[in-house]
Structure formats: C-alpha cells, structure tokens
Amino acid sequence: MKNLIKFELRKILTKRFAVISVAAVLLLSLILSFSTLHSMYAFDGNGTEETGKAAVEIDKQIALKYEGKLTDNKVQQMMSEFKPTQDLHGMNAKYIYQNALQSSVFSHFADIDGSWNGLSVADVFGDKEIKVGYVNGWLSTSQNMAKIVLSLVIILLIAPVFSGEYGGVDNIILTSKYGKTKCATAKVLASLLSAVFITTLVVIFNLLIAVAIYGTEGLNCSILFAPIDFLEGYIPFNITCGTVLKYQILLAFMSAISVTGIVLILSAVCKSQMVAFVISAAIHVIPIMLPISETSALYRIIVLMPLFYSQYISIMSVEQMHNGMLVRKAVIKRGFGFAPFKEKK
After folding, report:
1. Alpha carbon of residue 142 to chain centroid
2. CA gap 162, 97 in Å, rounded
3. CA–CA separation, 253 vs 260, rounded Å?
4. If exposure means fewest CB atoms within 10 Å of the residue's CB, which of 69, 241, 283, 335 is most exposed?
C-alpha cells in the first residue's frame, strides 16, 4: 500500500505542470511580499520620511514608544504627537497616513480635523485590553497570503487523479496486484497528502519571508488597533496578529482538504480531466461572485464554501448566531473538533 501511495504521489507532484504551478505560487508570494515592502511609507513627524525597509524601521521605533496596553493617556500622547500641522482642506484626518501607529489612533480617536474626538479607550473597545505594537508588517503578510488562490493549483493537480485513469504496463501491474479498492484508496490518500504538502510549503515560505522582513514584532498585538486600511478591523474579536495567522493557516488547510474532496468526487464522475477541472473551478469560484448580502441568511451557508476559508476575513467576521459562532458549528460538524472563538457578550 505504501508503494502505491508513493507511486500516486509521484504522479501528482512530479509532473511538469505541477512543478511549474507550485513554483509560480512561490514566485507570486515573493512578488507580493516585496511589492508590499516597496510600498511601505512612514513619516516620523520630525522631518524624516522613508519608504520600503527604512519605513518599516521607523514604524517599529514609533510603535516601541507606545507598546503595551493601550490607555487613555497613551491615546492623548499619540493624538498630540501626530496632530496635523497643516490645513487639511476638508479632508477627513482619518484617511491621512503618516505612519502605521498614527493611522491606527486616528482611525479610532480623531475627528475630521485631526483633533481628539472625545472618546476613551473604553468607549471604543469596551472592556477589551488592547495591546499596542507594530502590526503593519504581519497584517500585510496575512493579506498577501489571502491573495494567493492556492485552491486553484490544487484543483489543477487533483482533477486528473481519477479521470486520467491508469495507463502503461507498470500501472496495469499495480492494478492487478493491489486491486481497484486499494488503488482508489491510494489515490485519495495521495491527493490529500499532496494538498496538505503544497499548503504547508506555501505557508512556511510566506512566514519565512515575513520573519526576514518584519521580524517577530507585533505578533502579540491586537488586530483591533490597526491602520484604517486593514480589513482585519471587521473581525469582531480582540485577538492578536499571531492568533489571526493561526486561524488563517488552519482555514487554509481546511480549504485545501475540502477542495480536494470536491475535486476527487468530480474526477471520479467525469471522464475528461478538463471537464473535471472546469466544473471544480466553477464550484470553487462562483460562490464568491454571487450578489448575496452579508446580512442574508443564505450568506451563512455560502460562506462555508472552501474559497471563503482561504479568504479568512469573510468567515471570521460573519455575524454571531444565537447559539454561538457559525465557524464553530460548521467546523465541529465537519469533524475537525475545533472551536476557536468565544461568543460575544
């Protein structure tokens, strides 16, 4: 059985288009990471402005001054330090960007002209304890990982598993030795292992790049106190950047496994590899294109499709149901035994 699984793994992973596809995903990860780094900008308020890696260092130094628990006193200090000194000509100060921390504090505590809006930390965040630090780098990494549609690569590799069937003398020998049942089992196991392996490879590659560029600063800081352009603000939980990454990675593996299951079924039903691929890709992509409001009851069902797992913010920000988070119910029903979120009080 082990030999048959190894044989199926080689069939899936060593084909030229498989190697090219995985290499393309890794290259895309690299491009996104360095493109994001290149677009980084920071102004320290004292006449120094930088882009790229130098901007990251300025953001880190500013965050270091205020790191730790967010307090009303820190808010006042930040509002004073970052208060605009020029006429904004009617522009809302919340959308002015000097550096990451300034954007974070203005998005929550600034009125239209950049003055303090009168709100306290408790007014904005309730009884949540918000930890301040440099979150720009890791949240950027998280967003870049969400842009990598790895599921389509998995669909491309798995679609021929059954629809391609066996061919060649060596395959006939394996079929006669192990029988159709063991061959089918080996195909399923090899497909799942391939999906998990590719996902692991891409995740580790992206995390290594992020550590090399941003270090580990900010992993223990709250996502709620982030620059205004980050969608993580839609997640209604006071969790850290590190925790978001853990959930995102878990959801990525769930997506890979779910997609593999769907593709295997279609591969077994369809005689043509192309038909299996097209139908699988359509099932995967169409749900996110449907004009369904996030407040609709149907959205709670649509959001369980695999593509929403990789687009983690959608499923992590879905509104709470009366008996707990939808994610918790869905994952437990699928047999993962994972209940990541507490109910909101």
Report:
1. 5
2. 53
3. 11
4. 335
Q: What angle do CA 232, 131, 47 make, to 5 degrees?
A: 85
**How confident is residue 224, by pLDDT bands cut at 50, 70 and 90?**
confident
**What is the three-state SS of 26-77?**
HHHHHHHHHHHHHHCEEECCCCCEEEHHHHHHHHHHHHHHHCEECCHHHHHH
Tokens, residue 56: 């990251």
Task: Provide the mean pLDDT of the chain.
Answer: 81
Is the separation of the CB atoms in 106 and 141 below 8 Å?
no
In one-letter notation, the amino acid at residue 60 is K
Q: Which of 54-58, 97-101, 169-173, 263-267 has the lowest mean pLDDT?
A: 169-173
**What tokens does 231 get?**
């969608």
Q: How far is CA 100 from CA 70, 87, 144, 193, 225, in A?
A: 15, 21, 18, 40, 10
* The predicted structure's pLDDT at residue 343: 37
What ranges in the chain are assigned the alpha helix state H? 2-13, 16-39, 52-66, 72-82, 100-109, 121-125, 136-147, 150-158, 160-163, 169-214, 241-269, 273-289, 299-302, 306-310, 312-316, 326-333
Predicted pLDDT at 337? 36
- Residue 131: helix, strand or coil by DSSP? strand
Q: What digits encode the pLDDT tens for the residues 151-207? A: 889 999 998 888 865 444 445 545 555 556 778 888 899 999 999 999 999 999 999
Q: Are 165 and 253 in contact (CB under 8 A)?
A: no
